[in-house]
Automatic annotation (TrEMBL):
InterPro entries documented for this protein: AAA+_ATPase, ABC_transporter-like_ATP-bd, ABC_transporter-like_CS, ABC_transporter_ATP-bind, P-loop_NTPase
Alphabetically ordered keywords of this record: ATP-binding, Nucleotide-binding, Transport
Matches recorded under PROSITE patterns: ABC_TRANSPORTER_1, ABC_TRANSPORTER_2
PANTHER family, sorted: ALIPHATIC SULFONATES IMPORT ATP-BINDING PROTEIN SSUB, TAURINE IMPORT ATP-BINDING PROTEIN-RELATED
Domain of life: Bacteria
Protein name per its UniProtKB record: ABC transporter ATP-binding protein
Amino acid sequence: MTSTAIENALVINGVDKTFGATDRPAVLQDVSLQLARGEFLAVVGPSGCGKTTLLRIIQGLETATSGTVELPSTTGAAPRLSYVFQRSSLLPWFSVRKNVAFGISLKAGRDVHGSKVARDRAVDELLELTGLSPYADYLPNQISGGMQQRVNVARALAVRPDVLLLDEPFSALDALTRERLQVDICAILENLGTTAVLVTHDIREAVFMADRVAIMSAHPGTVRQIVEIDEPRPRTVAFQHSPELAEVERSIWRRLHPTV
Ligand SMILES: Nc1ncnc2c1ncn2[C@@H]1O[C@H](COP(=O)(O)OP(=O)(O)OP(=O)(O)O)[C@@H](O)[C@H]1O
Ligand SMILES: [Mg+2]
């Protein structure tokens, strides 16, 4: 493998997807994307353009009709992927701490932490990073929706994923909680150097969090354009409410609504 290939954490090459009979319309057509290691890519596009399908193909839950998805490994070990969904998927009878640790024990066969002490330390660190330490012993139904999504993110990060896939992770939350989580999750991913793909309907969220925003169109789902977000990290609350962000948000909105 070439060094440029290894610098990429994810390479999607000419992916097509048709469900069922091949005479059905394609859901995805010729989708190609490359993510450098540590890069944050957001994907926006109309409902039904195949965003979730694309994430499911990356994760191996669906197979592409044609094209390839590569996750180049730096170590020779199989790259790890984690997924955070829109809705909370916590185990209701487990405490916050156990839910986060469960992410690791699920993948015990590929334990990245080596020992129980190291695993416990990793869980403590993630609880701290996500602001969950005071709630470590609470059950999911004893914490707010925003806190539950923090637990989902912490659990996904517990396996130290090479690539984190986020499918509208904040869309069920109120605006203030969502903004706070955007800032915090951005900082955590920057801190850990995690490569991430975020699917969202919230253009402002995409611009705030991402290095690049892929704009998709539907029927068939294709990547129409990729917009670079020229803003240094760490991303701050000031940027979240800046005229610069609003301007980029407007221009992406216009590209998604060309007839308006
Ligand atoms: N298992 C499946 N079998 C058949 N068709 C499917 C299947 N999964 C998705 N589709 C179709 O693929 C298209 C894209 O769906 P997908 O869920 O990927 O869209 P999306 O961009 O994530 O939409 P949204 O923004 O509403 O979440 C839709 O037309 C959907 O009906
Ligand atoms: Mg979807």
